[in-house]
Amino acid sequence: MAQVQASVLAWIHLLRVHHQIQRRETAQLAQYNLTLPQFDVLTQLSREEGITQQCLADRLLVTKGNVCGLMDRMVEQGLVERRADPQDRRAYMLYQTPKARALMQKVAPVKQKQLLALLSELDRALAAE
User: pLDDT digit string (tens) for 52-95?
Assistant: First the structure.
């Protein structure tokens, strides 16, 4: 019984940490007029452009419907370009725009620094236990 309680407490602690990280990330990205899902999209397209919306949905662990609405907004903002897939006229391939690339050049180093600081905090917390 004590082991179950410890597991549940560990799970609750992880959820709280996740929530705190997500709040920090959301606030930081808002300075660049980006949401966390938009940053995730641009990160994926930085790794590989020309992927389909279905491939992006699979990588983000969301539905194609979620990606479709997100892409509509990002196209409207000038961050993503949809191009018809030459092999499947029903599908679109996704590309970053020059505006998105410039934005990611600003955001990526900040996010990298934040991640390193967070990992350093976790290392110190684990060492203290």
Answer: 999 999 999 999 889 999 999 999 999 999 999 888 888 899 99
Which structure tokens are listed for 9? Answer: 């407490």
Domain carrying residue 37: 26-128
Q: What is the CATH number of the domain that holds 88?
A: 1.10.10.10
The residue behind tokens 């000038």 is 78
Residues 6 or more apart whose Cβ sits within 8 Å of residue 108:
46
Question: Which residues make Cβ contacts (< 8 Å) with residue 84, sequence separation at least 6?
Answer: 91, 92, 93
DSSP 8-state assignment for residue 69: H
pTM value? Answer: 0.82
Query: Residue 89, CB half-sphere, CA atoms under 13 Å: how many?
Result: 0
